[in-house]
Design brief:
The complex is a heterodimer. Chain A is an alpha+beta fold. In chain A, about 70% of the residues lie in helices and about 15% in strands. The relative contact order of chain A is 0.08. Chain B is of the alpha/beta class. Chain B folds into two domains: about 5-145, 3-Layer(aba) Sandwich (Rossmann fold), CATH 3.40.50.2300; about 160-215, Winged helix-like DNA-binding domain superfamily/Winged helix DNA-binding domain (Arc Repressor Mutant, subunit A, Orthogonal Bundle). Chain B is about 50% helix and about 10% strand. Chain B contains ten helices and five strands; from the N terminus they run βαβαβαβαβαααααα. Chain B has a five-stranded parallel beta sheet, with helices on both faces. The longest helix of chain B has 15 residues, at about 190-200. Chain B starts with a strand and ends in a 6-residue tail after the last helix. The chains are: A alpha+beta, B alpha/beta. The interface of A and B includes residues 67, 89, 126 and 135 of A.
């Protein structure tokens, strides 16, 4: 009897201690877990920032080269051409024999000019900064529509707010990659691009009426990697699907505010 | 009114500037009286100048003043504010219509590409001097395309074929591509091909557009 009466409180105390230990342990584990999660999140955010900054550095360099090519080389080639035309005018009467040679040189400078424009635009379209994403894509579309092989339609469903430079540039590069893929591989005749702004996100939906894509194959490609890199550097998501009659991609990028730059 | 047109050049590329000057100086009735390699000092330079140019050729891309941008657009604004009678022709490598329309909207009297013929430069200078403006076909198109909303890409107005009409009717009756293929004894691929042609010909984005087209054109009855 007395043994039991002394043991009972002891058991009680041990039980309370045991429960306490378990609860403390759990609490500790939970803290640790949360801490790790936070760490992971910081790491991810840091990595996203690194990716974005390395993309932006690359883009800045592209822009500088594009501008130099466009303005410096463009001016020089243009003035060469003007001099040649001037010379052709002058020599037309007295020295007609040199005209074909002059015309040949002139057509070479014209080719140089057009390839210079193409290279510089591919590096960085000058309109993007001044006139924004929609106008730049519209210019691309107008150019493509002229060829008659493909019709690119752009719909700005919800008027886009002023985008920051990284978002503007990122979306432009993503769209160009998609358009190039369609033109190169899909054999499509229509591309439809819809831009919308809702629920604090920029939503860009892209479809074509081509032969679609082998999704496993697509995901391994360099183009797709570069698109994914762009999207994740902006904290966005991309969904690619193959509805059976064409290709579809929906890019969602969080809207980060007005462009003040 | 003087018989000689006084021309000014605002251009940062020295070889282009010199070349342009040499070309203009060869033309009778024109004289280059002013040159500047940047846009931001143009106003000060002009205020001390003996002769104010009648026509100013301005490049679009000009060096910034420290950190402040000073493009051909800014120069155009400043010049027109101070010398409203001056005629301004933009001479740029930029061939994008947005630039052309924007500059004309901001008051430039003409827009030329640097790789145009020298004869056109001459014509433009004379035209802005005598008539007040020089709008070539390219500039006109740029202005038209930037009036209000841009036009959508032209939708081909092709007649749809009998076969396509047949398929359109079946699509409207909610048959799937497989079912249509079976009914018409053709492959699913062909059905999809027809459907894509229909989308393009009717300017539709999806099946809903097709149905609307079919109803509007009496291909199906409700």
């Amino acid at each position: 009897m007395s043994v039991l009466s002394t043991l009972l409180p002891l058991i009680g105390v041990i039980f309370v201690i045991a429960v306490g230990v378990v609860v403390l342990n759990q609490h500790f584990q939970k803290n640790l877990y949360q801490h790790r999660l936070e760490q992971e999140e910081t790491k991810n955010r840091h990595q996203q920032e690194l990716l974005l900054s390395s993309i932006l550095i690359q883009e800045q360099e592209r822009k500088r080269i594009a501008q130099d090519i466009h303005d410096e080389l463009g001016a020089l080639l243009s003035i060469s051409r003007m001099h040649l035309v001037q010379l052709e005018e002058k020599e037309k009467e007295q020295n007609a024999a040199v005209i074909p040679a002059l015309q040949n040189i002139r057509s070479l400078t014209e080719k140089a000019l057009s390839s210079m424009r193409k290279i510089s635009h591919e590096l960085m379209p000058p309109q993007l900064e001044t006139f924004g994403l929609v106008k730049t894509i519209e210019a691309v579309a107008a150019h493509a529509n002229k060829t008659g092989h493909i019709a690119i339609q752009i719909d700005e469903t919800g008027r886009l707010p002023g985008l920051t430079w990284p978002v503007k540039l990122g979306l432009y590069r993503i769209l160009m990659e998609l358009i190039n893929n369609t033109i190169k591989h899909a054999g499509a005749t229509i591309i439809n691009i819809q831009l919308d702004h809702k629920n604090g996100s920029i939503i860009c939906s892209y479809t074509d009426n081509g032969k679609g894509m082998n999704l496993d194959h697509t995901k391994a490609g360099l183009g797709h990697k570069s698109i994914e890199g762009r999207v994740s550097s902006l904290g966005g998501t991309i969904q690619i699907s193959d509805p059976g009659d064409g290709f579809q991609a929906i890019v969602t990028i969080p809207y980060t505010g007005e462009d003040n730059s | 009114m003087s018989t000689t047109i006084h021309v000014g050049l605002v251009e940062d590329q020295p070889l282009f500037r010199q070349g342009m000057k040499a070309i203009i100086s060869e033309w009778p009735g024109m004289d280059v009286v002013f040159e500047s390699a940047d846009g931001y000092s143009v106003k000060d330079k002009l205020q001390n100048a003996a002769v104010i140019p009648d026509v100013m050729l301005v490049d679009l891309t000009l060096p910034p003043d420290g950190k402040t941008e000073c493009s051909g657009l800014d120069v155009t604004r400043v010049l027109l504010e101070t010398w409203p009678d001056m005629r301004i022709i933009i001479l740029s490598v930029h061939d994008d219509e947005n630039y052309i329309a924007q500059l004309i909207e901001e008051g430039a009297h003409g827009y030329l590409l640097k790789d145009c013929d020298p004869g056109e430069v001459k014509e433009a200078i004379e035209s802005v001097y005598r008539k007040g403006s020089y709008i070539n076909e390219r500039t006109l198109r740029a202005i038209q395309n930037n009036l209000g909303n841009r036009k959508k890409p032209p939708k081909q107005k092709e007649e749809i074929t009998k076969r396509e009409e047949e398929i359109l009717q079946l699509v409207c009756q909610q048959f799937t591509a497989e079912e249509i293929a079976e009914k018409l004894f053709i492959s699913v691929k062909t059905v999809n091909g027809h459907r894509n042609n229909l989308l393009q010909k009717t300017g539709s984005k999806n099946v809903t557009g097709l149905v609307i087209y079919a109803v509007k054109n009496g291909i199906i009855a409700l």
